[in-house]
From TrEMBL:
Highest taxon above the source species: Bacteria
Residues annotated as transmembrane: none
UniProt organism field: Psychrosphaera ytuae
Name used for this protein in its record: Gamma carbonic anhydrase family protein
Amino acid sequence: MKNLKSYKGITPTLGKGVYIEESAVLYGEITLGDDVSIWPLVAARGDVNTISIGARSNIQDGSVLHVTRRSPSNPNGYPLIIGEDVTVGHKAMLHGCQLGNRILVGMGCVVMDGVVVEDDVIIGAGSVVPPNKRLEAGHLYVGNPAKLARPLKESELTFLKVSSDNYVKLKNEYLGEL
């Protein structure tokens, strides 16, 4: 794949059944779990730290994934860790944060360094999550800066897995076209 680029001799590694659209570009130390889908114009740079994306997660069109370098004041830096069954909406910016499982990051969100998002969370479209904030499991967060809006409804909790399952089906259709 021409869109998988090495950085300092390290090239992204892919699980089984991964789909990466040809206009997306991934550099460096990136690990994609099984059935991950990366959609058009995604830019992911695992150059100064690592990126890990869990099984069945999807990164939608125009999203940017990056990390923060290690330094004397922050020896681990901030890698980007995305759990399983995560849906990252169009044009999201994820930078050196940690997302749990079954999360929806709405379109146009910005999630910054040191943020930890627990499992089963929805971040509303256009929200900005400032550095080092923790988003608690089972809630909706919205705004700039993102604030807790309310607990998720049962239907929303169910939707989180349905969304990732739908993207696995869609990427399989795309893979079938190749």
